Every structure is written in C-alpha cells, then in structure tokens.
Amino acid sequence: MQVDLVIICRRSVIAVMTAVIAAVTVVADAELAFPAIAADVVRGQAVTQAPPLDPAALYARGQAYQTGEKAPIDFERAAGYYATAALLGYPPAQFRFAAQLIGGVGVDRDLRSAAKWLFVAAANRSDSKVAAAARDMLKTLESSITAEDLATAEGEARQFKPTSDPIGAVETLSPSVRRAVALANLDPPPTVFELQRHLGVRFCAPPTVEAETGGGYVVKGYREHFRGTDRPAVDAEWVKRRRVATALTPLAPAICDYSRFVESLPAKARTLDVQVEDAEGHDLAGVAKGTILSVTLPAQDFSGIVSVDYLEHTGAIHHLVTSVQGRRSVLRRNESLTLSGPWGRGASRKQGRTLPDMVIVTVSEVPLYDKARPDPDNAAGYRDLLRQRLGEEDVDTRIYYRILPALP
Known about the structure:
This protein is of the alpha+beta class. Helix content is 34%, strand content 18%. The strands form three sheets. Strands 7, 8, 9, 11, 12 and 13 form a six-stranded antiparallel beta sheet that branches. It has a four-stranded mixed beta sheet with strand order 1-10-6-5, with no helix packed on it.
C-alpha cells in the first residue's frame, strides 16, 4: 500500500599439550583481577606507558578461562592473559602460551613463536619445574618444526626482555595474538551512569558501547548541545584508564527533549517497527532540502491510525501525516504501509554543520488529535499531547523516532 507523504561477528588440541601442562606449577588461588591498561584517549589504542600489572593474577585469570572452573571457558581470552603475563616475564605463562600456540587454541597455530616462548621459559632460573617442562616440550616439538625456524626461535628468545608495557609490546606479535590480548584485558563495558559522570555529558538516548579489536571501547550516541564554556570537563584520567573513545553528536534541546521523552515511555509503547530510507531504498544517511524520505511500517500484530511528524532542531514541528478525519492513513494488522514524498518543509540549510532533525511516527487505536493543529507546531505542547495519549492504559499507542543527520 503506497501513500504520498509531504517531506519526508578452531579450536585444535594436541595430546602433548595436556600431558606436559600438568607438570607446570599451578597458581589457582591468585587473585582474579582485571588489569587496568592505559590507552590513548582519542582512538582507544595503547600508549607507551601502562600501569604495573600483576603477572600471577593474569596467569590465574588465563587458567580460569582455560579450565572453566572460575569463569566460562574462553580459549581466546585465556591465550590473551597468558600472552600478557608472558610478555611481563612470567615463566608459567610463557609455557602455557607456547602450548596454546602449538595447538592453535584461542590463537592461530604458530610453531616458531611457540618454540621461542619455550626457549624463553627453559632459560629461566626462577622456576625449575617450568624450565624442565619447557625443555621436554621443545624435544617433542623438534619433529614438527624446521631446523631454520627452530634456530630463528632460539635467536629471538635470546633477545627477549620482559616489558612493563605488554599491551604496547604485543604490536610485534601476530594479529590473532593482538586480538586475544586486547580481548583479555578489557574491563567490563562502562555503564551509562559512568559515561555521563566521567565524560561530563547528558545523553539524549542510551548510547551504544562497542568493544574495539585493538582494545578499549568506542561510545557512540547523542548528547545535549553545549555552547562555549557550558560543557563540563571530561575526566581524562578515567577515560584513559578505561580506554574509552567517544563519537558523540550534539543535539539541539528540542530534539534532546523528544528523545528522552520517548526513551522514558513503557517498553510496549516503544515497539513500533519503522524503516526510514531514501527514495532508492537505502538507509537514510542525512537529510537536506529536497531529500526524498520513505517511511515504511512493516506488517505488525496491531493496527491503528498513523501520524508522522518532522521535528526541526529549531523546535518547529511539522505534521506530515495527521489523524484528522478525511486525511488519515491507517496501518492494518499484518499489512505493511509505506509513506513517501519530497522533503520540503522547514528553513533552508546554511552551508556548514547543522544540528540533526528528527522524524516521529506514532500508531494509535484512536486519533492523536481530531482537529488540525498549527503547522509549524510548538514542540513542547505537542510532546505533552503525545505523553497524555501514550499514558492512557486502555488505548494501544506505539511510537518510533529516528534522528536524521542534517546536511547543509
């Protein structure tokens, strides 16, 4: 049904691994602590200087993820913790990491790198059991590795020196090891409360927090629009320690108010499924004067009268599809509905950066309003009307909003 609308993410195990690992000293009772790694504030990448780390705790954490006794089994995280402690110079971790490299457990199989770590562990004088186990495994490995690779590994082992910055040193290792170390050393994702407090922002909608393969988190979302010195200071030390990089777009007060309003509604009211696309059916990247906007409501398990409103960052709201008798569009149960047309409302865009606008779609069992409202309408007054309607328990009203980046 078409109606015109004005606007618009291999595990391989060898028998020798289990047999020889049993000879290694177990550090099962060490503290299972997530280490804090410093990182670049902008891109979430490790800096040269990192806080002191506890290799025994890292090793114990690796054991926990490998055995599944104190954490869910995760061989990649186990390899990451072992690799981190190995770079710090901890012999048991060097041996365990070598075993995982031999079996390709949690990381790509790499016999030369495994031999290097076995040579390093065998040379240590602080743990005779680990050194003996490493020498035994080297003898077993000799039949599977070329003499050239073995000699190279021995030379690399002689050059090895423990580092105080394993996250930085891991850049010289293979991609799979880098990923494992980054994954292992991530703290739990920051909460919205933490982000608001330490970034000094008020989010207009719940932000998304994505883990970076290079380590750290990228926070994406919308915040209030700050002017001049009004913006609170960022807690740079917290951001650095938690490795948080941000990509936050400012929103004008009117857009922020509507976003917060919708997010505060009961979950049921926010279940309206809507697709906002351009005239070619692609996800809308932004709007400018003349943009063709297509609003599609896929088939859903309820029906109602459709309203579509366009909220400008200036606070002006335009009623594009109304609930006035004679001009109503109806979403029928289990049927889809598409509304489209040229965007021709609002002030013309000036060259340069412009704050985003918003499209608001509602479907209600009864009309939101039965008499024509002013156009442009007052955003605050219309929001109060929506709040009243969506607060009526006996009336099924659903709402959807989409922030539309504005193009000059």
